[in-house]
Release factor glutamine methyltransferase
Amino acid sequence: MTACEPGETVGAFLCQAGQMLRAAAIESPRLEARLLLGHAMGVTAETLLRDSRMVVPAEAVARFGAALKARLAHVPMAHILGRQGFWTLDLAVSPATLIPRPDSESLVEAALAAFPDAEAPLRVLDLGTGTGCLLLAVLSERPRAFGIGVDREPAAAALAAANAAANGLAGRSAFLAADWAGALAGTFDLVLSNPPYIESAAISGLMPEVARHEPGLALDGGPDGLDAYRLLAAALPALLAPGGVAVLELGQGQRAAVEGLARTAGLRPLSCRPDLGGVDRALSLAKKPVGGPASED
């Protein structure tokens, strides 16, 4: 995959790999080249940046070539590295789950703002847990909380459980493969969900890293992108404890439609936190008070 040979320097490998990644329309090609070569050599990208004259070991050349080939085919970087940072956590990822993204950290911010007492003994539910990123991030900030993560994909639930163990949170979490709320009884103080919300017809037009390599079940929100929100709106009134809050991730432009579904189901929109790009991303909901007004926005 690369013309560089064992015995050549880091700088030579990075120069060629950067050119190839740029030609493949990969953003930040030099940075990604460093990440790939660092992964192959077992060192940090910062180490490579400090010493471009370091010789690439022979045993790293094949690993680098395979990793570069995968990235040129638009396999997500996180899948190649096997890991992704989220909040303060280091999480394993796999093709069975969505890759955690910085935009989703707005849900963690919204959840913590809804329950500012760090010692609150919260009961937390994460529907469509994937890697477990949302649930584990909240548990890491609320040491007396306990959470359950549910995913329809058994491989995702298993990965989330492994991430909980790796981050020291296995004792305060449980994960199961089930049809979301269908297997649950009882109520929760906080319900989190990053549901599938892409319109079915739009999936093929997404960037190839997403369209080709992330699980369709976690992307496809039906013809209008709202199928999962309809299910959530119907389930949340029974899942939320008194004073409970649900925080849902939204796709761009979906706020009004999801708020409408929520109101119809007896839920009250509280706030909507934007992501770093200014997109309405984290919608917080509560149950309407019994006998209260139709809307208390």
The radius of gyration is 21 Å.
